[in-house]
Amino acid sequence: MGERKVLNKYIPADFDPKLVPRGKKPKDDLVPVRMMLPFSIQCSTCSSFMYRGRKFNSKKEAMK
Predict the structure, then answer these.
(1) Shortest CA distance to 34 belongs to which of 54, 57, 53, 52?
(2) How many CA atoms lie within 13 A of 8 on its CB side?
């Protein structure tokens, strides 16, 4: 439990930050996001209801 309270981390003398792998950016610039409905809605194609609080996946893209 004491290791969680450490403010400084040990960095070895031979550490090279250039060798640390970085996260890859998605090639299509679409980021998957988990969202929740703020109110109930009805599908216009199949007439099924999706109620408030339902979680669903969506994709977020940047405006160009």
Answers:
(1) 57
(2) 3
CA distances, 38 to each of 35, 48, 51 (Å): 9, 17, 9
Confidence at residue 2, expressed as pLDDT on a 0 to 100 scale: 60
Q: What whole-number distance in Å separates Cα of residue 17 and Cα of residue 13?
A: 11
pTM for this structure? 0.43
Q: Please give the pLDDT value at position 1.
A: 58
Q: CA torsion, points 53, 54, 57, 62, in degrees to nearest 10? A: -30
Amino acid at 53: G
pLDDT digits (tens, 9 = 90+) for 13-32: 999 999 989 887 767 778 88
- Could you give the CA distance from residue 4 to residue 34 in angstroms, rounded to a whole number? 30
The gap between the terminal CA atoms of the chain, to the nearest Å, is: 47
